[in-house]
Amino acid sequence: MAHILRTLAALALAGAAAAAVPVAADTAAYLTAHPGGRIAGGDILYGGGAFVVTLHAPPRADALVDCPSGWYCFYDRPDYGYPRGRLSDCGWQSLAWWGWQDRVESAFYNLSRGSVQFLDTGAGLFQISAGARALGDAGAGRNRATEVYRYC
């Protein structure tokens, strides 16, 4: 019994130490500017994980674009420069819900079918799809998207 109590106490201390790990300054600043997110690994999750923000590109040796399978991603800089936002739901969504209106500069579609249209208050700006996945520079549509519509 004493062994079990020591094990439980050690686990409780480990959990308390993990909870005390400081949040990176840029993550804290992002959460202050865009409250409501939850930190999970290197991501910030909103809406129960429906919208995911990644502030820094993970190390990668061979991929130009880092967009997980099953998502469409949009980036705060041309050529897929971070921070990155990602969504996967079908239908219309306001980027303002997530604090991403007027900041998309490039995008990538990593789903097996469908497409997503980026809109500026209802007017089409650009589209990515299973057949035309990559848009390294949104050109005239850069920093203008206020909403998206995913056709599934």
How many DSSP H or I helices?
Answer: 2
Taken in chain order, the helices and strands follow as: HHEEEEEEEEEEE
CATH superfamily: Crystallins
CATH topology-level fold name: Gamma-B Crystallin, domain 1
Rg over C-alpha atoms, rounded to the nearest angstrom: 19 Å
CATH architecture: Sandwich
Proportion of beta-strand residues = 35-45%
Classification by helices and strands: alpha+beta
- So what's the CATH class? Mainly Beta
- How many separate structural domains? 1
Low-confidence stretches: 1-21
Task: Please give a handful of descriptors for the protein shown.
single chain, 152 residues, alpha+beta, Gamma-B Crystallin, domain 1, seven-stranded antiparallel β-sheet, four-stranded antiparallel β-sheet, 2 helices, globular, disordered N terminus, signal, Peptidase inhibitor family I36
What does this entry show, briefly?
With 152 residues, the protein is an alpha+beta fold. 18% of the residues lie in helices and 36% in strands.
Describe the structure.
There is one protein chain. The protein is α+β, with helices and mostly antiparallel strands. The protein has one domain (23-151): Gamma-B Crystallin, domain 1, CATH 2.60.20. Helices cover 18% and strands 36% of the residues. It has a 7-stranded antiparallel sheet with strand order 1-2-3-5-4-7-10, with no helix packed on it. Strand 2 and strand 3 form a beta hairpin. The radius of gyration is 19 Å and the shape is globular. It starts with a helix and ends with a strand. Residues 1-21 have low confidence and may be disordered. Residues 1-19 form the signal peptide. Keywords: Signal. It comes from Dactylosporangium matsuzakiense.
